[in-house]
Amino acid sequence: LVTAAQYIETGRNKKVIVVGGDKMSSIIDPTDRATLPLFGDGAAAVLLEPNTEGYGLIDSITRSDGNGGKHLYYPATEETVRNRWHYAHQDGQSVFKAAVTNMSDVTVEIMRRNNLMAKDIRYLVPHQANLRIIDAVAKRIGLPREKCMLIIEKYGNTTAATIPLCLWDYESRLAKGDNLILASFGGGFTWGSIYLKWAYDGGDFSK
Q1: Residues 62, 181: contact at Cβ < 8 Å?
Q2: β-pair partners for 60
Q3: Which of 136, 135, 157 has the alpha carbon at shortest distance from 72?
Q4: Alpha-carbon distance 61 to 190, whole Å?
Q5: DSSP for 153-202?
Q6: How far is the C-alpha of 202 from the C-alpha of 207, rounded, in Å?
Q7: How confident is the model over 132-161, as pLDDT tens digits?
Q8: Entry pTM
Q9: How far apart are the C-alpha atoms of 24 and 43, rounded to whole Å?
Q10: Using an 8 Å Cβ cutoff, are 100 and 138 in contact?
């Protein structure tokens, strides 16, 4: 989203589609009962285009720390394939602690930077990795669960697709000018937060 917004802001492009998609079932060991139930396959997209009313991506914070790679990684070599070690693995407790701390920190930072209080936020749009992580981040910034977009019970953790899927699922509930805070965490470790001002009124688009 940050990269797409920069293409729009420079005038290089008038419309940019950002697609997030992962087929996690292809890299999860079907015998790994600790990891397999957590993930789902999915893809979703968002469209960005110029506006002169101050809507869209307002601010962003993106961070990374390669030291977390050993806790959440996707290795693949001839040896790992031969020994069935090439599937995605994660150290759940280490990932949980890092996700809660880092997602909370960047969310609080972006709200402070833009003088936003919990009452100013229509929805927190969190990466759908784990409900306990989402609850912990929401508690840190003082948001009740009903102000968090939640789709994990429908689709599981679809990794790169989770945030655009949230926006699609909640689109009809959004109104022009709504303040959204996006927060994500992923392998590596990588994490970030975006302050987004929604640009149009949602509705029933099923007809």
Answers
A1: no
A2: 194
A3: 157
A4: 11
A5: HHH-B-GGGHHHHHHHHHGGG--TT-EEEEEEEETTTEEEEEEEE--S--
A6: 14
A7: 899 999 999 899 999 999 999 999 899 999
A8: 0.84
A9: 11
A10: no
